[in-house]
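task queued by scheduler; priority normal; single chain, no ligands, no partner chains; default sampling; output format set to structure tokens
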Amino acid sequence: MIRSGRGGRMRGQGMALLRLLAMVGSVWVLLATTTAMAEPVRYLVIAGGESVGWMVVDEDGRTVEIDYHVDNNGRGPRHQERLALDRDGYPVLWTIDGTSLFGGAVNERFERSDGRLSWISQADAGQAPAPDPVLYVANDASPWSLALYARVLRQAPGRALDVTPGGQITLTEVRRAAVGDSGVEGTIYRLTGLNLAPGYVILDDDNALIGDLGGVIREDLADAAPALRELHAGLERERIGELQTRLAHRFDAPVRIRNVRIFDPETGTLSSPSEVTVFDDRITTILPESGGPTRDDVYEIDGQGGTLIPGLHDMHAHNSLQSGLFYLAAGVTTTRDMGNDNERLLDLTDQIEQGLLPGPRIVRNGMLEGRSPYSVRTGILADTLDDALEAVRWYADHGYWQLKIYNSLHPEWVGPVTAEAHRLGLGVTGHIPAFVTPDQALEAGYDEISHINQLMLGWLLEPGEDSRTPLRLTAMARGADLDLNSAPVQRTIDLMLAENAALDVTAVTLETLMMSRAGQVPAMAEAFIDNMPIGYQRYRRRAFVDIDTPEADAAYRGGFRKILQTIARLHNAGIVLLPGTDDTLGLTVHRELELYVLAGLSPAEALTAGTLTPERYMGRDHSLGRIARGMLADFFLVSGDPTRDINAIRAIRMVMKDGVVYLPSEIYPELGIRPFADGIEIQPPRTPSEGGQAEAADRPVLFGPQGLDHHHH
């Protein structure tokens, strides 16, 4: 029987760790005296076309040692792994020691012997009988683990296995592929069930790892990294395009949604019972609910007294092929992309607009970074001021809406870059570059600041402190004692009001990073974690920063409380708050709005911030952000009343974007997620039969309670 901690520090975790350390230590001593390590294989970690880390694998027989180190944008996992494998390739020992993305300590241990297994990780601890080999899925493993899982699964019946500590993973052989122009070939495998998106791995004919298609590649084959990345994108485009074909429901007649109340973000109230009709991509009529019979010439949906809400916005997104369905299932119909691979983003936007791929409307912002040891490899990386100005022109020429400045842009470039952006009609937002203050950025022409911590660091950092490092997060622990009525705070707020500057808040991002604790379910995920795949559940039960004392824990908690108080202070002052997540899950948009309510906004005010406010800010509220005649048909249906309980937006039964219906009850199972609400029924138009009776037209669009087409399946 598995015993796993939940909601607090695991009981007995300390003793379990001591026992595991003793067993692991003795076995490694034995292995060290009996095994000679082979020549190590070196891999590179590639991001934005540049090497940002390495993975060195010493593999000899049934022992493996791995050194994994990533330094991208001043952060990245850094750890060492040691494995002992049985004759079938299953781990019998697996240790991982080091730090995770933002420096949180990693001391993971797995051991199987004498018919039992035990494990302890950042996320959980447990033990269970294991008379037969069991595949353990590590919480903080390097990308080499994908090769391990694939090797084991190749021998498994049906290439699927139940794994420890839970869930099932499946291996699909995708195709043979050449590795660029190297002359090397390998087999690509897809692994599903590990997390929210499938993993891809390419193995050579000896089942050794070539790369993971996500940026890790054998060093001698590094020139092939772009080709493998393109191959990965093509495989995912095929997979997601097929899902779009099955999950996007289009209509050849008007759609009439009856018995609903409509949320009005201008008044913050719900309408009386109404019926809304959509044709093509527009809302055509809104009438009081008639209570009359169904009509023969339209598709009909009974909203059963639920609430229609304008589509939600994620104003700080980094869209991907995979993110589209997550956003739509969560009622998010518009995102603002705050930095991406520009070629990929242009292609993705085009594919979504053509209806070939699922996804929200995307407003493109272009990221501009300066060269430094801490540079991010997203968007355009400028080595000189001339490069930076040329990047601004490129973004303007390609229809981007704003420029996003990042941490390493040289302080003296901020003024010229901002002026050039404004000259070309681009707005300016972004991080506050290192050694620049928010006040200076606003005076230089910033129209908006990205992330509430980037704003608050202006009140917390000492002159000369470098915000390109994880200090831009860890310094938020100083916030507990910040006086929000102090002169520096008031000066910044006055500047924002004078410049009509907005704040892209991303409170949920700061909550995730500051309030996550090893072994505990974070508050940001409590509402949905039980519905998620086991890999995601374990990923969320981890610390992202090193919190090694009660004082550090209290400082981060106090600092996050101050963030919520700052949200209220800014809202009351009249600053425009834009909800963003820096995430692609969609569900975190709901938590972002919930945090605004926890900060003191009413549910209706938070919902307005998530619906109409972004469209007003972007100047598109003539066609989006409300449910009214002539507006574009972007909205979603829930059963409850979100003006009383903001959490009512979590149980979504139907989403319409551009007049196309998506059902979360259909989408989530495809993503390995248990749905949060039942589906809806869509009654197709009826046509007169020869005997004069009306019959349902032969259209496969009638959906049962779980979104399944019982009549045409």
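post-processing summary
- The chain has a mean pLDDT of 90.
- The first strand starts at residue 41 and ends at 47.
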